[in-house]
Amino acid sequence: MTNTTAATARGPRAFPDLARLIALMTGAEKHAPAAHSTLDALWVLYDRVLRVTPETVDAPERDRFLLSKGHGPMAYYAVLAAHGFFDEELLPGFGAYDSPLGHHPDRMLVPGAEIGSGSLGHGLPLAVGTVLGLRAQGLTDPRVWVLIGDAELDEGSNHEAIAHAGPAGLEQLHTLVIDNASATHGWPGGIASRFASAGWAAVTVDGRDHEALHAAFTTPHPGRPLAVVARVEPKS
């Protein structure tokens, strides 16, 4: 592993007071449950798994993280600030006209953001395309992670991406599904079975259990993409 990316062997750090950071964002946010449902999974990813730092956001060898569930970005902003991608002094301006921290992340404005997001169903297809683009450049080490919500699986674009990625053997692709029971249709046998039926490695875990999340995130899956379904409390 080169020193341009963070190592995966690091142990867990103390879970910071991310609630305090989120509380600094006082803009008119209508998707607070969407943000809080992602908090633990995002922390474990950035603290123990993703090989990207504020210094390596443009390094070709970095891991890519795509937030498809961009309509509730407060937890994402808090985690980025906690890891030094930008100063937490930006957080109180969340949602303001002159703030880089909008209600949907803008990759041109938010340090560390790979995509502009918020519209349901876009992130997973973009992640598939990112893996294919990396392959075309001969970059087979960087991993691509995308976080989606269970309700996004109502969108046909996601089913097309799932159906392609498994048979194509996109081992660099990792999908984190936050399951807060908000999907309209669901899937017989659970969400993980949807991915498994298309040739993915798939596991379901408690989305608040940091050790279980880390074990799932680092599950070996040679020759197949990985889906981690993180169950959290139902959306109220």
Automatic annotation (TrEMBL):
Name of one Pfam family that matches: Transketolase_N
Gene3D superfamilies to which the protein is assigned, alphabetical: 3.40.50.970
One term of GO molecular function: magnesium ion binding
Segments forming domain Transketolase N-terminal: 31-219
InterPro entries for the chain: THDP-binding, Transketolase_N
Taxonomy, superkingdom: Bacteria
Transmembrane annotation, as ranges: none
Name of the protein in question: Transketolase
